[in-house]
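note to self: dont lose this again. the chain is below, predicted strucutre after it. 153 aa total, dont forget to put it in the shared folder this time
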Amino acid sequence: MEIIKKKPPPATFLGFPQVRQFPQPAAPVLWAGVEALKGKERRKFEVAFKKQLIAQIEAGVMTGMQAARTHQIAPSMIERWRRQYREQKLENPPTSRERQLEAENQKLKAKIGELVMQNDQLKKLQHYAQRLKNADTSVITAKNLDQFRKDSK
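---
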């Protein structure tokens, strides 16, 4: 006689079958401009610190790898800072106030350009009107009849 083993029924919770959960990759979460990845916050370094670190590396006080280990910074980041320093692009980013003033400056420059063009057009129109007024025509009209009478006397 053969014994048949029955499979136990799947575990249920409130009548719903249990669903197997697979681990999901950790998505970056933003908190007030700080990006957190896997429990680490993104660090921001001051330009003065970057320049000091590069000066130490360039002077031979420490190598790039030693600086990376000491400060727990990726060597590629230090090399990027060195390249930016050589290209003189290692500066503080503009503040929101500076960006706002720059945008306002651009708008005002555009307005000045527009006003200069309008002024040039008005000067051309004024010059054209003056030429028409001073035009010496040989055709006698009711407008210039008195002028020709004065010249003939």
